[in-house]
Specification:
Shape: globular
Largest sheet: 4 strands, mixed
Helix content: 10-25%
CATH class: Alpha Beta
Number of strands: 14
CATH topology: paralog of FGE (formylglycine-generating enzyme)
Structural class: alpha+beta
Number of domains: 1
CATH architecture: Alpha-Beta Complex
Number of helices: 8
Strand content: 5-15%
Bound molecules: calcium ion
Radius of gyration: 19 Å
Strand order of the largest sheet: 12-11-9-13
Length: 382
């Protein structure tokens, strides 16, 4: 993946035209959020995640093809072939989770846990790979790939960085993610909370601040691929039928802690009932019926599919075999900015705000965007 391809995702296009350029890093909080707010479109975790300050209309990120060669199944589990109902089986979903429809999948191997910092470090050391968040955007390159007349973003925004969770100390409106996400210079997988943070002693934590491109590059290196959205949901269900969670139907906040989510008042008060304010090491909660850990909670997980709100409607009516999603992304909330699917919710999910920990919950993010609560795991068909 060349630099220009990676940087392709940094273009704001119409969003910049609406808002005008932010004048400082603070003004660039959560990228285009202020633009959407100004346009009167509510934005919340229940509908969208923030993107880098400059979004894209053209992304080279395409469907992943599994590379040939040997695959180590260490740390992976074999999910049996089968047919299931993909999508929400209750009335608790967003519109894009309906209709539930029959999907048949071949068997596949999947990582038992999210990819950890230690595993990602091995990849970086072996390949000298540089992640999206570590690359300073080059306006000369970007300019070739945006409509003529697109204004240059300010230098304060064109920095190597990523999106960091910055909780307020008071209650805030939940339709404005810029209240708790901040575009942060120097944030990347080695400094997930910004330059003053690091991952020392956190080898067993999920790697975060990785773009879809980064996750796909890791998967290729490992001889694997990212899961399709259908594979991810099938695996997350753990063999249960029609249940909203990997463990069944019990609410996430009753009984024993079952996943790393948010308890209290989001985003300013976290009671840590589940033991963790932010990220947790992988594998700290009981696995699902397939032996998979943290399929929900902790971090959102990249899938290989492009996001389209109407994917399920298009697939309903017959049994879909090994679906790989639409040919390109289409998010009506941000037309022209293709998104990849992320699944499973994160440590920020709370019932009052975002039930991303439901197995059928779908979310989407532009492929160039890294977030402090987004990671991935890999699969293999061989
Ligand atoms: Ca938690």
């Amino acid at each position: 993946m060349d630099q220009s391809t990676k940087l392709l995702g940094l273009l704001t296009l119409a969003l910049w035209g609406c808002q005008g350029a932010p004048t400082s890093g603070a003004a660039a909080r959560a990228g285009d959020t202020a633009v959407r707010a100004a346009q009167g479109k509510a934005l919340s975790c229940a509908s969208n995640l923030p993107a880098r300050p400059v979004a894209t209309t053209a992304v080279a990120a395409t469907m992943q093809v599994e590379p040939p060669g040997h695959v180590s199944h260490t740390g992976m589990l074999l999910i049996p072939a089968g047919t299931y109902l993909m999508g929400a089986a209750d009335q608790d979903g967003r519109p894009d989770e309906y209709p539930a429809h029959a999907v048949r999948l071949d068997s596949f191997w999947i990582d038992a846990t999210e990819v950890t910092n230690a595993e990602f470090r091995k990849f970086v050391e072996a390949t000298h790979y540089v992640t999206t968040a570590e690359i300073k955007p080059d306006w000369n390159e970007l300019q070739k790939q945006v409509p003529p007349g697109t204004p240059k973003p300010p230098d304060s925004v064109l920095v190597a960085g990523s999106l960091v969770f910055t909780p307020p100390d008071h209650a805030v409106p939940l339709d404005d993610v810029s209240q708790w996400w901040t575009w942060t210079k120097g944030a990347n997988w080695k400094h997930p909370g910004g330059p003053r943070t690091d991952i020392k002693g956190k080898d067993n934590y999920p790697v975060v601040q990785v773009s879809w491109e980064d996750a796909a590059a890791y998967a290729r290196w490992a001889g694997k691929r990212l899961p399709t959205e259908a594979e991810w949901e099938y695996a997350a269900r753990g063999g249960l039928k029609g249940q909203p969670f990997p463990w069944g139907r019990e609410d996430v906040s009753t009984g024993k802690p079952k996943a790393n989510t948010w308890q209290g008042h989001f985003p300013n008060l976290n009671t840590r009932w589940d033991g963790f304010y932010g990220l947790s090491p992988v594998g700290r909660f009981a696995p699902n019926g397939y032996g998979l850990f943290d399929m929900v909670g902790n971090v959102w997980e990249w899938c290989s599919d492009w996001y389209d709100e109407g994917t399920y409607a298009a697939e309903a009516g017959s049994i879909v075999v090994n679906p790989r999603g639409p040919a390109t992304g289409n998010d009506p909330m941000e037309p022209g900015v293709p998104k990849k699917v992320v699944r499973g919710g994160s440590f920020l999910c709370n019932a009052t705000y975002c039930k991303g920990y439901r197995v059928s919950s779908r979310m989407k993010t532009s492929p160039d965007t890294g977030l402090e609560h987004t990671g991935f795991r890999c699969v293999s068909s061989r």
